[in-house]
Amino acid sequence: MAEVAVRWPSRAAEGVRAYRLIAGMWIRSTMTYRASFALTVCGNLVLTGLDFVAILLMFSQVDALGGWTLPEVALLYGLSVTAFGIAHLAFGSMASLGGRVRDGSFDTLLVRPAPVLAQVAADRFALRRLGRAVQGAGVLGWALVAVDVDWTVAKVLLLPVTLLCGAVIFGSLFVAGGAFQFLAQDAAEVQNAFTYGGTTLLQYPPSVFGRDLVRGVTFVLPLAFVNWVPAAHLLGRPYPLGLPDGAAFATPLVALVCAVPAGAVWRAGLRSYRSTGS
Predict the structure, then answer these.
(1) Which of 22, 30, 120, 267 has its CA at 20 to 30 Å from residue 12's CA atom?
(2) Which residues span the domain enclosing 96?
(3) Global pTM?
(4) Residue 253 and residue 261: Cα distance in Å, rounded?
């Protein structure tokens, strides 16, 4: 156990270094065509912003959605999309793992002197994905100005912690979904159902969903801690499902509970890999 405890930080540092080098290579490649990069980022900003346009159209017909006003729903949207955007930027390439497994190119990653997870996550690193996080942060900034929040030091500190932990929760889904592709190979859409589908679900207040669904995304797949629970604390609203006071500050623990099993599932999937046989 002592040896594992000593090796783990070294292995993690090695993975971070490998990720940084590979991502840097792809960023330099992208920035060779700066005009194309700028147009692509702008296109992503517009496309991702259509989700919020849909919310604006809804509020052009109603004053509240499930008892939540437009600035409050914008807060949910901003927290969810920004956290997802960070995770998508860092781990979005995990969706292509199934293709590598099918065509046998994944084998080349196994013989390189770098952690495989870092190589897969940084493969074809797309800086254009930054557009989603920027768009979400813009909506979040407007929401924070528009909502009526009784700010305290604890609430101010809760905001960046929530964004970071939300990114970890979504990142864990990307990693676990990537591991599932060792088994299914063509399971990118299954992964998307939990990642893209999850962030879309969280853009709306819990009061518009059935109690069983809210229970599932709180206790089974704890996406509620990405924004529903912290936002309820910020706004002084009751927690979903009557969670106890201070539940919003359990978000780091929830993120850890998601990250550790995701890492274990990844290692199990990697051990089960037997190549394509070709």
Answers:
(1) 30
(2) 2-272
(3) 0.91
(4) 13
